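Objective 1b of the project was to move from sequence-level analysis to a structural picture of ligand recognition. The entry below was assembled by the postdoctoral researcher (A.K.) and checked by the PI before modelling. It contains the amino acid sequence of the target and the SMILES of the bound compound, coenzyme A.
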Amino acid sequence: MIIRQANESDMPSLMKLEEECFGAERFSAEIVRAFVERDDTFVLAAVEGDDIIGSAMCIVSDLRREGRIASIAVVIAARRKGIGSKLLKECENAFQIQAALKFSLEVEATNEPAIKLYSGNGYEVKATLQDFYGPGRNAYYMEKNVDPTKREIKVHSA
Ligand SMILES: CC(C)(COP(=O)(O)OP(=O)(O)OC[C@H]1O[C@@H](n2cnc3c(N)ncnc32)[C@H](O)[C@@H]1OP(=O)(O)O)[C@@H](O)C(=O)NCCC(=O)NCCS
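Corresponding predicted holo structure:
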């Protein structure tokens, strides 16, 4: 498995992954394409052979020196093998290369697998956002601060 930046030619595979992982709540093709194309966003793909088995969609705010994780998804058949964790680490590496001092995300308060993935990697719940995903569906806002003196810059290899 390698992790590399996704590009326009990955759109069909990324949309298939969105459908499998998020169903009706998937991002639209317009939104995914924007994540792939914009200068302040990027998409990482976990690739096994010819297949994209995971993705992470990210936003970088230069002004706030913040990296935001909009989504991480892994195909059902490949879960609990560390791929989500590897995608998260590569997002953080990319944010650090762009000098972010803080990583953040929102996650549905009932999404135990994702909350465990993030809390196990140093993210802390800073706020509960009421009805963020619709009536009665709250989100946790989670954050991880980077100590600039301990930054480990790794250059993306894939
Ligand atoms: C959340 C998700 C990305 C995790 O991907 P993954 O590749 O299975 O994650 P990892 O194998 O790296 O797991 C890392 C840790 O997260 C936690 N975790 C992951 N899945 C879990 C589950 N089903 N139940 C409990 N804890 C879980 C565990 O602590 C795990 O460590 P461990 O396996 O050593 O116990 C995956 O479940 C997914 O795609 N879910 C659907 C999409 C989604 O909700 N994304 C997050 C919101 S944007």
